[in-house]
């Protein structure tokens, strides 16, 4: 009987320690908002001879822009006194694309905007709505921690080409969860 009480006590002690460590890890995690990160890029006008085509998700789309943009998120974290090694989560919360030039251009041709980070087979965000000079993106899968080693953002913009060059601004807001211990 004494042995069973000791075993039960040890089991209870282990369960309490395990639960406490989980709570301790939660307490030692800091959430940082990384807001208004912007990148400007240019969509070239339509070429009359050949239109770039790509097949994504079984649909044929006109690719307006396909480029890899360096964003160096790791450096941004370090500039804020955060260590990449202690990063627990890095999530894209909000994103939008706005018109920079030419003034007054109608953005309705960008109804199929897709945003990729690293892996181009899985979009991170897609166009939710287009209004005037702004495309609001809906986040499909915002967890980007496993993609940060690449530190590049691949942007695919699809829609209808215009007869003029268009400069756009991609805006992104992130939430980083950083542990105070490794």
Relative helix content: 10-25%
Give the biggest beta sheet.
Answer: 9 strands, antiparallel
Strand order of the largest sheet: 1-9-4-7-6-5-8-3-2
How big a fraction of the residues is strand? Answer: over 45%
First and last CA, distance: 42 Å
Number of helices: 2
* Uncertain parts: 49-59
Structure description:
The chain is an alpha+beta fold. It has two helices and nine strands; from the N terminus they run αβββαββββββ. It has a nine-stranded antiparallel β-sheet with strand order 1-9-4-7-6-5-8-3-2. The longest helix is centred in the N-terminal third of the chain and has 26 residues, at 2-27.
What's this model, at a glance?
By secondary structure, this protein is an alpha+beta fold.
Which structural traits does this protein have?
182 residues, alpha+beta, elongated, 2 helices, nine-stranded antiparallel sheet
Question: Which SSEs are present, and which pair or pack?
Answer:
Blueprint: H1 2-27, E1 29-43, E2 53-56, E3 59-70, H2 73-79, E4 87-101, E5 114-115, E6 125-131, E7 134-139, E8 152-158, E9 166-179
Antiparallel strand pairs: 1-9, 2-3, 3-8, 4-7, 4-9, 5-6, 5-8, 6-7
């Amino acid at each position: 009987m004494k042995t069973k009480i000791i075993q039960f006590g040890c089991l209870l002690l282990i369960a309490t320690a395990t639960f406490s460590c989980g709570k301790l890890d939660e307490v030692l995690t800091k959430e940082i908002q990384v807001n208004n990160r912007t990148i400007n890029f240019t969509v070239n006008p339509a070429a009359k001879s050949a239109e770039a085509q790509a097949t994504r998700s079984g649909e044929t789309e006109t690719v307006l822009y396909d480029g890899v943009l360096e964003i160096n998120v790791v450096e941004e974290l370090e500039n804020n006194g955060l260590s990449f090694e202690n990063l627990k989560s890095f999530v894209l919360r909000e994103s939008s694309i706005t018109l920079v030039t030419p003034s007054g251009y109608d953005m309705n041709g960008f109804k199929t905007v897709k945003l990729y980070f690293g892996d181009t087979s899985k979009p991170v965000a897609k166009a939710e709505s287009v209004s005037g000079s702004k495309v609001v993106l809906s986040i499909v899968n915002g967890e980007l921690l496993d993609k940060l080693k690449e530190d590049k953002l691949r942007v695919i913009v699809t829609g209808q080409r215009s007869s003029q060059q268009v400069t756009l601004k991609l805006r992104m807001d992130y939430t980083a969860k950083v542990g105070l211990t490794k």
